[in-house]
Amino acid sequence: MKTNQYDIKDPSLAEVGRQRIDWAAREMLVLKLIRERMAKEKPFKGVRISACLHVTTETANLALTLKDGGASLVVCASNPLSTQDDVAAALVEYGIPTNAIKGEDDKTYYKHINTTLDNKPHLTVDDGADLVTTLHTKRSDLISNVFGGTEETTTGVIRLRSLEKSGKLLYPIIAVNDARTKYLFDNRYGTGQSTMDGITRATNLLWAGKNVVVCGYGWCGHGLALRAKGMGAQVIVTEVDPVRALEAAMDSFRVMPIKSAARIGDIFITVSGDKNVIDLPHLKLMKDGAILANSGHFNVEINIPALESLSTGKKRIRSFVDEYTLKDGRCLYLLGEGRLINLAAAEGHPASVMDMSFADQALCLEYLVKNHDKMGKKVYSVPENIDKRVAALKLKSMGINIDRLTTEQKKYLTSWQEGT
Ligand SMILES: NC(=O)c1ccc[n+]([C@@H]2O[C@H](COP(=O)([O-])OP(=O)(O)OC[C@H]3O[C@@H](n4cnc5c(N)ncnc54)[C@H](O)[C@@H]3O)[C@@H](O)[C@H]2O)c1
User: Using an 8 Å Cβ cutoff, are 53 and 61 in contact?
Assistant: First the structure.
């Protein structure tokens, strides 16, 4: 039942998509090396892969790597708003069936996930765990074929760990998100820069002097707060974890509960992976004109039904900007329908960081092909040697050399005898 089916917006966009995929490839030198090797060694020969990822130029480079490595690959979007329609068209032209249309409704989004699963995958690649959840709940008849999977992002890993804990995870999945070469760079620098880019493109506002509230000080929050500060904003951080809140305070940011920040903020950005972080009581306190954006997960971090319940009307005043007029006369502005703003209004992470995340993806998928029979139905960390290999290759691609431990140092660092 291998699928050749695809559903994209406009096949004539393929040429533009191809050019942009090539442009991204210039910054993805680690993946390029892996692609060249895989094209020779064909580690995915005879392997069917179903991938649910943001359909961007960087993802296209991963998809081409897997295809050159011999995989029979089908792709769908991991977010209804993040698809780049020209990239989807180019992927189809490259012979990779793709099911993704920017702005697709929820019904089409799940239809596309199901078509992608019709590929009867041996391996799944997911970003947020919607594909894996659909497979485990509605398409469990296909699970006997699957021997492994990877998960790209924080929230997906949380969902999978919960599936594992309930004893219901049915095959091994590697949490690519937890590789140091992923979260330290992709979540921090990638989300930091591209979220600022998405909000800037959507609104064209000036950051300098604005009160920017960052909800969640994980790796995404670290990057975002740093970038907002760099643009001249006064940054406020809200947290629930005392250690991270302390870190934010010592990183020079104001830290307070969202209820206090709600009265002060000009721009609110959620990056917590949590639900209703901005909720009804907070919306009631916000200043007229406050802007709300999410770069964390799905569209649940800002309580949109609560915003609707407070409003008398909603108007799209620019692309990706909805003006909500509240019963008391204030207006609040929701960007990108509360979905990941860096992917909705900009182009997602820059290729250079995705180079590392997707190098991890390609190497972890290869690892699963080779090692799945020794693995259990668990969520696994990325093997340390893959993480280090990706970092070493990235440094090499940047022309940076580093020191090596001397024999004396190696001995010193592994012994207990030497003191002061
Ligand atoms: N936009 C993107 O392209 C992109 C990229 C990477 C990750 N993500 C998503 O961003 C989210 C955050 O990722 P991360 O790696 O920073 O995760 P993380 O787990 O390192 O950090 C999340 C932080 O949010 C805090 N938090 C939870 N509930 C909160 C609440 N009610 N109020 C304030 N803070 C709260 C947690 O204590 C934690 O410190 C995840 O959903 C992840 O999937 C998005």
Answer: no
